[in-house]
Amino acid sequence: MNDxxxxxxxxxxxxxxxxxxxxxxxxxxxxxxxxxxxxxLESHPTDAEQLNEAFRLIHSIKGSAGMMGLxxxxxxxxxxxxxxxxxxSGLQTLDERALGLxxxxxxxxxxxxxxxxxxxxxxxxxxxxxxxxxxAVAPEGGLPTPTPAAAQPPAPSVAAVVSSAEPxxxxxxxxVPAPTASTPTGRGPVTVASHDVDYLIVVTFEPELPxxxxxxxxxxxxxxxxxxxxxxxxxxxxxxxxxxLTTLQVLLSSDHPETELRSAADVDxxxxxxxxxxxxxxxELEPSESAEPxxxxxxxxxxxxxxxxxxxPQIASAEAVTVPxxxxxxxxxxxxxxxxxxxPTAVAEASGAEPRxxxxxxxxxxxxxxxRLMNLAGELVVNKARFVQIARQMSPVFKKTGAAGRVRSFGxxxxxxxxxxxxxxxxxxxxxxxxxxSQIQELEAGIEALEEQSRLWEASRRSFTQFHEAIDQxxxxxxxxxxxxxxxxxxxxxxxxxxxxxxxxxxSLELGxxxxxxxxxxHTELDKRMIDELGDPLVHLVRNAIDHGIESSExxxxxxxxxxxxxxxxxxxxxxxxxxxxxxxxxxxxVEKVRRRIVERGLVAESVAEGLSEREVVDFIWHPGFSxxxxxxxxxxxxxxxxxxxxxxxxxxxxxxxxHVAGAGTTFTIRLPLTLAIIHSLLFRLRHGVxxxxxxxxxxxxxxxxxxVVSIHGRQTFEVRxxxxxxxxxxxxxxxxxxxxxxxxxxxxxxxxxxxRWNVVILQSxxxxxxxxxxELQGGQDIVIKSLAENFVHIRGLxxxxxxxxxxxxxxxxxxxxxxxxxxxxxxxxxE
Amino acid sequence: MxxxxxxxxxxxxxxxxxxxNAGRKTSSQxxxxxxxGQDYAFRIxxxxxxxxxxxxxxxxxxxxxxxxxxxxxxxxxxxxxxxxLFGLEPKPxxxxxxxxxxxxxxxxxGCTVDLVSQVMRIPExxxxxxxxxxxxxxxGYIAGFARQNDRLLILLNIDELLDxxxxxxxxxxxxxxxxxxx
Lengths: 832, 182
Fold this sequence. Notes:
The structure holds two protein chains of two kinds. By secondary structure, chain A is α+β, with helices and mostly antiparallel strands. Chain A has five domains: 11-145, Four Helix Bundle (Hemerythrin (Met), subunit A); 181-350, Histidine kinase CheA-like, P2 response regulator-binding domain (Alpha-Beta Plaits); 367-488, no CATH class; 491-590 and 628-673, Heat Shock Protein 90 (2-Layer Sandwich); 678-831, CATH 2.40.50.180. Helix content of chain A is 49%, strand content 18%. Chain A contains 26 helices and 22 strands. Chain A is flat and about 130 Å long. By secondary structure, chain B is an alpha+beta fold. Chain B has one domain: CATH 2.40.50.180. Helices cover 20% and strands 38% of the residues of chain B. Chain B is built from five helices and ten strands. A five-stranded mixed β-sheet of chain B has the order 8-1-2-10-9. In chain B, strand 9 (142-148) and strand 10 (151-156) form a beta hairpin. Classes of the chains: A alpha+beta, B alpha+beta. The A-B interface holds A 1, 3-4, 375-376, 378-379, 382, 688-690, 730, 733-746, 786-788, 790-793, 795-798, 801, 803, 807-811 and B 25, 27-29, 53-64, 66-71, 73-78, 81, 90, 92-93, 107-109, 112, 164.
């Protein structure tokens, strides 16, 4: 079969997919960030910082899409970028139409990502492009292309930008005359849009220079210190991919003299540096781009405005534009002129100080690797437990210091006895003396061997002490390792929550309801996998809250509530749990309506429904196929969802509870373990082996006298401090098939009461309580949860399994499901 | 893909060589095992290892052919008793009992068998497809039959046999369809 083996699936494709993965991860983060910016812009359309941020994000998506050769995305983002350029330059303001369109573009880009992930071909979106182009000629007073920005700058909007950051009367006065000072060529003063001069730097590397791309990076880094690098050829991101890099062209603008630029670019391995000033003229770039490099800094707006001031006199006096190689002395004078006008701080900030806050350094890791690491760390903890167990078994032997002393004194007394024998033997003679001698020698050898053993034993005892210390050390290390690995999986819920800004906006627009989203505790950390799984359930809950929870503004007004409804999304730690809640200030759950509905749906008979408590009625919300919406809306009301939410949460070993106050709102609280991987549990032995339950589900452990157990309708019940609690055996929860195989290591003991008492673990989930008879309690332990579904199927009533110190598997009880199972079986038994 | 020369033509030595080569190319390796005296085989590609288990944790709420779960170097894998799956009389674990660990899609599962006989190479052309009457009755897990030293070997398709979603169906159809030693 070897010769049939197919080796054709080689590296290149997997390498590509590796980049693709990176691209997808990055862009989806950037798209999320972009949506956030847009949502801020929705209420503050001229927020320069957010405009710049959005521009930067789009620009970088464009860049990476270009790198990946994804032309469709590149074209769309290019148009988006253009539009943002117009917004940034104040030519247009972000209106609702544009915002909607941009959001649709983002959806399209998300769809692209999804398709790329799924490996399906990308769709095209010509209509989005058309609409984007349509925006360019929007009646905002702007012009089709950004090029003539200088010729007809809409003075009010420039003023607005300037006034937003330290208005400078002199500057404002100067802005208006600026366009009139345009050069006769009609190109406008844009070519020298600031006191900075544009240069084209051409760096020629020595032929066959090793690591030329790194050299190029170095050159760029050095230049970036004294200049604003605008464009490079080859593109910076592609440097590494260019084979035999010989030249690097850099378009930049700087207020430093050309000589400084030259020397910055002249690093080891560079053969020649050429610098051409006023290079913009040659390259014919969009003039508005001149503001770009520094525009990422929040202070960009005032500098740009200042630039207009300085530009006018400069063009008028020296013909720097028409002369390709500008004399840098000219430039210096311009610089001084500017310095007169601009406040000193503005200059400092303009010349490259980075006010942007540093983002923590991160490494992207495939979650599969973390899972493997987690498994290994878990195994290490299991192995450690095994060591501890072995040491515990050995310690009675070694820990008794008295024993060694006794052996030694025993040896000594033997020696004395031997000595005595020797002296007595000396009194004898002849044959009996020889006999004595041989006996004495034998005894002497025996004593020596004994002493030798005793010494060895003493040495082992010392080694054991060291062994014990080593195990302690290992315990600490393996525990910290495990904790460390766990922590690597913990991520803040912020990105998950932030998605809801958009969700809430879209749904509330669609339903015509006014809803505000409040987010609390977004820094709470949760296992990454859990965050991934939580998205859908939360969307369901939020949709339900807006659709069913929040009333129409009219109803709200009549009820004396603010017309705008509120949805609160919050996360918080609570002991070993994370609580995530979705709360609304709507009308609460209409209990009577639900009661009618469950009868209509035939879920229970009318007579039964009458007798249900409010809580029991509300619990029907989780019933599959239940829905109370008067009209089936596009968003919710199809009667699927809530049961799925519950199942999903249960799969994460979590629970979900509802609290509601009629007329004041509903709160859904999801309680999740801190991590999917480790749960602090109580271990106990049952007839079928060792089981674990999360310690959070254990209310208490009691010893119940057999005669205090009362049987009501065939169900056992016992009383704890006045409360009657059902008492069940594991066989009343689960079906076990008869065991016919006996594996050597499997032990099967019958669970019986100890003497005349039962050991009972009282389990609790939500409001429900149940006592479970156990054979033997084994104490608390952190267990590493493994999924049963990973290799097999999900078993109802079990939330997973774990490996114990002796290598055997223990099953983890899902208490909520187990209580439900026990109740169900009890019902069935009664019916039979 | 029969490469046997048609009868009547001259049998050239090269033909023989070619036939032999072709035979080698299209033969596959199988791991043979027994259940109640009947020989079965799995393709070797999906077999991860063969182990002797001593500790199995029984799981509730599962059909009887699921022995339980066990710990295979940190992974928890289910153990399927093939005898019970096929509706055969169960047999106590003895010195020859083995668990074959196989890969079923993304899953790793174990199945216990009476004994593992050998690894063998079977030329593809000697494999007879399972009669349609057998496979149409939901016994798609039978990949074919082969003769090995005068013994009938049933080749099983692991994906069809042990996929958790198909186990019940296998269990139902197995008792009726598999040849039984008399």
